[in-house]
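Re: weekly structure request thread

Next one in the queue (291 aa):
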Amino acid sequence: MIDAHHHLWDLSAVSYPWLEAQGVSRFFGDPTPIQRNYLIDEFRAEASSVGVRASVHIQVGAADPMAEARWVQSVTESQPDWSMAQVVFCDLTAPDLGIKLDDIQKLSTVRGVRQIVGRAPEEDSVTGTNDLLDNPAFVAGLKEAGARGLSFDLQLIPELMEKTARVLEQASDTKIALCHAGSPHDRSREGLAQWAAAMKNLSALPNVHCKLSGLGMFEHDWTTKSIKPIVDEVLAQFGSDRLMYGSNFPVDKLYSDYDRLMTAFKELVPISDHPSVFTNTALRFYDLDDV
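Done, posted below.
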């Protein structure tokens, strides 16, 4: 099996300002328990205990994104028996985008880039990342990434989905991975209905895939029953061949252990869909055979 969305960090090797800030609550809660090193050995022990054998590391807000990418490359090279690709940060609106992408693609583990569009309404109002959708350079950057064979990991909230779909239609040759099932932050019946309706704008685009990940960030006391509507909906809209599992550890480790998370998803995803959701979709999307 493949974990298509996780993070690692060594606070002595790379600086993460958001993680190092003391006493600051985040949209996903209090980060205090994870304000420590989370290294490959710990992740592998947790993931391999349930049968995971490969993974995709996702950038996570380093002060120097290339320093993070090079560190992840070195971690991967130190683990010859563990296949790990990575998705790195890139500002797709940068005037020197070509040079940045050239540097990124010198790292053999890189399969895609990420630039967060939306995390949560309260944080987005401060960061202004939603403005990317109005920037023509962002569309051009998406196209350039796709032309180079790089995918794009898309993190946003349901309120932005219709607008985002219009942007993605202009970059139809770029593979898109929708992070965290589109971040359904309002778990009320009405909130989930609005999320499901909005997501149809994205699932209608054949180049958009979806990650079954990060569901604990907006529901800290989640249960298998409570997340069932989300799992059912993403399966219905994307199908198992465009859906992939991700733990979002160690962020989601704040609210569950790895075994509980995998057990819940395996129970909710029909057995016939297990090969695609837990292995094959990520294998194809991130070209893990070549890691």
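The first strand starts at residue 2 and ends at 6. The first helix runs from residue 17 to 20.
Next request, please.
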